[in-house]
Specification:
- Helices cover about 20% and strands about 40% of the residues.
- It has 3 helices and 6 strands.
- It has helices spanning about 40-55, 60, 140-145; strands spanning about 10-15, 15-20, 70-80, 90-100, 105-110, 115-125.
- A hairpin with a 2-residue loop joins β4 (about 90-100) and β5 (about 105-110).
- The chain is α+β, with helices and mostly antiparallel strands and about 150 residues long.
Length: about 150
């Protein structure tokens, strides 16, 4: 049996980033459906691995300069379209729709076999290590939009 190999952090495509995740027992509630709050975990993994694939190490950003740089979720809108179940294989898609100033806007989807389950819009604030807004450096913004 031929086995397909995937990168642990997903892949960049012409449509953005794509990450494959399996639904485990721990992700479900008593009904066998994914508990609504667990989708936040899948979305966070998608965003984090998107950054990794772009060559952005969040742990290094705090020391990028004397001010430091940190990404924090400012706002999130989620539309639940259909449920996922235990053992489903999900695809988390992430794309940047805006990056500049002191924020980024990321559009995310979770799909199963091409069927749309979740749509999310995530507004990310760019702050310094003191928690104050700071501008996203142009070179870094270009990675997200490139």
């Amino acid at each position: 049996m031929k086995q397909q190999m995937f990168s642990i952090c997903g892949e960049l495509t012409t449509e953005g980033h794509r990450l494959t995740q399996r639904v485990y027992y721990e992700d479900t509630d008593f009904s066998g459906l994914v508990y609504h709050a667990r989708y936040l975990h899948f979305l966070e993994r998608g965003r984090t691995d998107y950054l990794r694939c772009l060559g952005v190490e969040q742990s290094a950003l705090i020391g990028i300069d004397e001010e430091g740089l940190v990404f924090v979720v400012h706002r999130m809108e989620i539309d639940f379209k259909a449920p996922a179940r235990m053992d489903d294989v999900l695809e988390v898609r992430t794309v940047t729709s805006m990056a500049g100033g002191a924020k980024m806007v990321l559009e995310q989807e979770i799909r199963r076999d091409g069927n749309l389950l979740i749509v999310a819009k995530v507004i990310i604030a760019v702050v310094n290590r003191a928690g104050r807004p700071r501008r996203l450096p142009e070179g870094l913004a270009a990675r997200f939009l490139g």
